[in-house]
Each structure stands twice: as C-alpha cells, then as structure tokens.
Design a protein that fits this description.
Blueprint (H helix, E strand, L loop, with lengths): L2 E6 L7 H8 L5 E8 L6 E9 L2 H11 L3 E2 L2 E2 L1 E4 L23
Antiparallel strand pairs: 1-3, 1-6, 2-3, 4-5
Length: 101
C-alpha cells in the first residue's frame, strides 16, 4: 500500500522531477507534486511524494527529514488527510431565527 509524504521548506527552484529523483533513492516513487500558487504558478515551498511501500516511506522520513535539498533543509513527514470543507460555505452561524436581538 502506498504512503503519501509531506515535504516542506522546499526551495522555490526545486522541480517535480528533482523531487522525484531525490526520493527515488529511498524506493519507488509513485508520484511527486509541488504545490503551486494558482495565480502566479510559482511554488508555495511544499509538496507531496507518494512512495510505493510503507517501509520505503519510513526510510525516506528517517533519512531525508532535516537534510538539504537544493540548498534548503527540508521537512519530511507522513501527510495528513486534507480536512473536508463544508459544501454549504460560510462559517457555522447557526439558525438566525433564534437570535433574540
């Protein structure tokens, strides 16, 4: 089963290809993605790598966390699930009928 890793503090010059190549040293990389700003297309300085096996992901976390990549000391952690957004939008203001003012 594959495991997704969060990669933080990336250099803005790091490419998805160089990220993939770096983590390939720890095992099979299924995907490598750098998160980019929608407007400018520039890197936001973090990304995700999906490793094929749990033990490969554990090795990548152990060996790469706190190590340099493209001149920056990267952070490598297991990625957390993205919280679901409320499809109704807005912030839970409750039922306005019961406001007494």
């Amino acid at each position: 089963m594959s495991k997704k890793l969060y990669i933080g503090n990336l250099s803005y010059q790091t490419t998805e290809e160089s990220l993939r190549n770096y983590f390939a040293g720890f095992g099979t990389v299924e995907s490598a993605q750098i998160v980019k700003d929608r407007e400018s297309g520039n890197s936001k300085g973090f990304g995700f790598v999906e490793m094929s096996l749990d033990d490969e992901a554990a090795a990548a976390i152990q060996e790469a966390n706190g190590k340099p990549l493209d001149g920056r000391t990267i952070r490598v952690n297991e990625a957390m699930d993205k919280p679901r957004r409320d499809s109704r939008g807005g912030g839970g203001g409750g039922d306005r009928r019961y406001n007494s003012w």
